[in-house]
Design a protein that fits this description.
alpha+beta; 3 strands; Signal_recog_particle_SRP9/14; Signal recognition particle 14 kDa protein
């Protein structure tokens, strides 16, 4: 449900999801105790480890991409975002975070 709501706010093509399919399970609508860990790193498109010795002849440089992983302790989801889709992804991600930040407490002002 959250991915549908986020998809409505995106400027992406119809049918494309800006956030992974499992994002609504990793960040549920109802408040629960726990946390979600999100990591972000540069991704070069390799699915196998680089060889220890030898040259890198078979590896072609790919478009700048970013690997995003989310984990809540039991479930893991991940997606790869290309440099062309970064703005769309960030807007969808921002809307997803705003929708799930209802349990935060306000800071006490110091006098």
């Amino acid at each position: 449900m959250l991915t549908r709501r986020v998809q409505q706010h995106c400027d992406g093509a119809p049918g494309e999801r800006a956030v992974p399919d499992g994002a609504d399970q990793a960040l549920p609508e109802e408040s629960v105790v726990g946390s979600t860990d999100i990591t972000l790193k540069k991704y070069d498109g390799r699915t196998k480890p680089a060889p220890r010795k030898g040259s890198m002849e078979g590896v072609e440089p790919s478009d700048n991409t970013c690997l995003l992983r989310a984990m809540d302790g039991k479930k893991k989801i991940s997606t790869v975002v290309s440099s062309k889709e970064v703005n769309t992804f960030q807007m969808a991600y921002l809307n997803l975070l705003r929708a799930n930040m209802e349990g935060l407490k306000e800071r006490q002002k110091e006098q």
